[in-house]
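Extended Data, panel c. Modelled sequence:
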Amino acid sequence: MRYRNTNSFRQKAMHFTCKIFSVLIILCATANHLTAQKAHPYLYFTPAKMQQLKDRIQKDTIANRSWNEMKESADKAVLAGKGGNMEELCLAYRMTGDTKYGEPVKALLLQLVNKAAWDGLDDRTPRWNSALGTARQNGLAANAFDCIYDILSKAERKGIADKIVKLGIEPSISDWISADKRIHTLNSMGHNWWSAIVYQAGVASLAVMNEVPQAKQWANDVLNASKEWFAFSGSVLENKVPNFDPSGGFYESVSYANFGVSEYLAFRLAWTNSFAPIQMAYDKQLEKTMDWFINAGYPTSERLMSLNFGDSNPFSNGDRPVKLMIELGFGKDRYYWYLNETKKGKVNEDMNINTPFGLVYSPAKTTGSVAPDLPLSAMYSTMGWGMLRSSWDKDATFLGVKCGYTWNHSHADAGSFVLYHRGKNLLIDGGDVNYGLPEYSSYFVRSEAHNVLLFNGMAQTPEDQYHAVKNPGHIYNLIDGGAFKYILADAQGPTSRFFLRNYRNFIWIGDVILVIDDVKTYEPGKLEWLLHYDKDAKKKGLDIEVSNENATILVRPLFPETLPNGYPHDFPEKMKIEERQGVKDRDAKTKISYYAFSPAEASRQTKFVNAIILLSDKNKPIEGPQLSSMASAPEARTNLPKIEKLEGKDMIGVRITQNGKVTDVYINLLADGRLMHRNSTSTFNGWETDAYMMAVSYPENKAATTGNAIEYFISNGSYLKRNGQVILNSLSKVFMHVKIDGKIPEIILQGQPVMNVNLLLKDKSGQVMINNKKQTPVYKQDGRTLVIESAL
């Protein structure tokens, strides 16, 4: 019995020992899998990508031509015996396997790693041992080392790897993310510089993992640090905002977003190729950022343009990050549509097919030519950008509004706007020039270079661009009701040194965009409404006509007064217009004109109402000799919207008539903060309301009644009544747009989280559309009053 028990014990022990041994074998195998490196090249010009390219150039004539041009360039460098484009030579070597291309890469790489230093800034204390040049050299060296690894001896590999560490990786890691030597923080340089230097150090670390055991940990440290970069939430004490808007925008500009986000994605791609695909918590954020690039774009028949707020280029885009996202497996149809637009006209892509990386990583897919499946309007409230467009068609109309942050690459432009129409950027942002030129600081980053309001020549203080604005501007209440659109900009915070109120409302009705400014200052002074334009602008009667080839708009001041229709001296009460000199975008030697409109008298509080009239083939100018005799009259154009001023007790407004439709817009003068503890109750042509602004549309030649109304708009109002009939009732104030001329009423409603709103409709409908979602309606006993409840 004892023998049997002992034997059983021994069997169990042996079984347990075998299990432990098996587990150890598995653990060792797992450890070997984790530490084993793929054979070089594994960063970018991998064998799989080279085979894909070889297959592609057999059937893609554009790719074939691009490859042949690069190979020809590499052949010339080989023939010359020195120099050449390192990336082209790398691609030629990986595509052909011919060492005649690899040896020049080796020579260039040795020349690069034998420098005393790659970059640094001696004028900083403590000294910056790495800068953007370090990032560039890290990327070049990493790719070259990876590509020619097989023609290097073991000693050469170790020697080059150690020098890459010394010149590029260590200075970058030490300065930017290390615990013991770091001198930077996300609060100080956590934007595009941090991205470029840190992520390219990560790429270089991946390249030298075989020779430098610590390098894998450095790359892992970079990956972990990326979580904080994407999540950077700003700093109250240092006046910093988050890098990314929750909806995906990057505050610095389209150009710098392209750069900063691409540097991360290049590292992410190298990591994926070196190991395996990964998922990160911020991947949804990245996808939103790609949509932001698309929303900031304006497709024309010639090429894609983008909003160029801040330090950006009118033709900057998100081409490189979108391509890298596709390669990483995030492709969407709208991404391919976007790439189709970026490649048109003069090439301005960062990774176009005529570059080695572009040739390898530009997707071969050419579908996605349909319009993006994104709304026509978008708002990025944290960073203060708004985009409203008539359609995704080429040469449509696109309004960009900026009212947010000022610091570094983001200019002092709170409340500014730009307008694109018929393929041209007619109302422009000031732009920028080389940072070393005095005009950059003295003009481009300042308020006067943008379409804003000035008080005695000032809006934001010039120091904002360096020290950061303490109270940024904001945008609110984006409403897109099709032919009716609205957005509100609050520029008071950045201009609070001069303004108690500085609100700018944009109401887009058909072919008319009303820019309504509600301003109040601490003391009387000269208020000026700035208009920056591209190409040509001239006064024609009551209007300023802005044009560029076949794209034309009219800018018509309405309140506090119109422009004089005759000799200015004969109309001293009218708006004054002054032509001023600015500096051309990216050309500091060239002066350009812009306009400033100002009331005749100094004041503390007023309302500016300016109409922008969008001209097209349907309301184009009359040609021929009639034009000169009729130019001063609005009727000198066919089907031009008829615009009338409305004035009454405690109200000013605008009536717009076009295409058989009339829209009355009322501005409640009691609702601008002048009353305390009293509601802003007023009656305008029979409409009783407490709204800040309201609008009603109805058919031409019919009265403005509840029975004839086809559209309502309420801005910050709690009720609307007419002849004792309640149309809108809400205890709290709301922003609302209602279309009731179709089978299904369409309602956009914004307000506090908990609301109980009653809305009178023309007829009882089986369905209603509320905030773009179909719903089964609930009515009051009268069968026409819709009940809308919203709760936390």
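Residues 1-35, 624-632 have pLDDT under 50 and may be disordered. This feature is highlighted in the accompanying rendering.
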